[in-house]
Amino acid sequence: MLTHLPKPTPDPIFAIAAEARKAGAEGINATIGMVMDEEGNTLVLPSVAKAANIVSHELKGRSFGYGHLLGLPEFREGVHTLILGDHAVPLASIATTGGTGAVAVNLRLLKKMHDDITVILPSPAWANHLPLLKATPVQSLEVPYFADGLPTIEGIAEGLKKVKGPVAVLLQVGCHNPTGLDFTIDQWKELAPILATHQCAALLDLAYQGFSSTVEEDAEPLHIVRGSGITTLVSWSASKNHSLYSERTGLAAAFVPDEETKMTVEGHYSSITRGIHSAAATLGQSIVAAVQKQFKKEWLQDIADVRVILTAKRKALIEALPKKFEISLKGHGMFAMLPISEENIIRLKNEEKVFMLHDGRINIAGIPLLRMQELGERIRKVEG
Description:
- Helix content is about 45%, strand content about 15%.
- By secondary structure, the chain is α/β, with parallel strands linked by helices.
- The chain has two domains: about 1-45 and about 295-384, Aspartate Aminotransferase, domain 1 (Alpha-Beta Complex), CATH 3.90.1150; about 65-295, Aspartate Aminotransferase, domain 2 (3-Layer(aba) Sandwich).
- The model has no long low-confidence stretch (mean pLDDT about 95).
């Protein structure tokens, strides 16, 4: 039967990244979304390294029996504090396999709430959002994320008018992937009552908390939406802000009105993950818990240092490229979508050994600061 399977389509990000690795030191790899240091190695935050060292010593006496389906309590409490800040409201949650797993679990919760729910997805979106929607499966409606080159809520507002029946919207909170361009706080405040008018649920993907602004400020849109009175789910990731990419550590959460509802939601979370992977792995959870309990002040400084690096890289690239690229680079976080044709992107790969996605998305965080000028020169050769 295996021989009758159709040929799969390779993941575009990993396929181009493989080509970049083959190019060696000459190549400029702007593909997979990781923060890299100046030597091209995955950046390890000092606070996270300290926490990992403590956890590694604790492994000798660690029990490797099955843990709770919801995850380590100390991990969940630490992430709850990051999500809630000073807001004293109940939060149901479960540990997941990365932010991807958190989105998948929350989508399944939405489907449990309404089997016929339609999820509105502003596009361009993170490359994995649409596959996750299809895999759940739920009906989806793609709407424009941009108007005149800037994020707009109009596409969502128009999409809501088209949907008959239960509806949710899947939105990224800060450091938009792939564009780096985010809703302003005023736009979030304008959007929240629109969602409430349509009794629309919100699934908010918080994958880069602390990379746009402070941890508290990056979580503010969650509370603006929650404050509108609609069902609000959160998908949180430790991959970027704890540099724990390979440990696949995340959290699915839901704002709830009371403890009884919290228990109900967590029961459904447990049954959902039981049917996928049973329970999420705990090593990454232990490291995040140790960071947040013992090294939080240092971690906050580490995150601030990353923001400085990302800002410096954006500034250097803006200075190295023609004026037409400036708007696309004015965002926050790791990504930007450069206005380059697919034809020229292929030329950049073949002629200049510059590797980016065919839609122009680049991972600014993955390119050494000292090579930004070189990247700009190579793009100028092709763009003219």
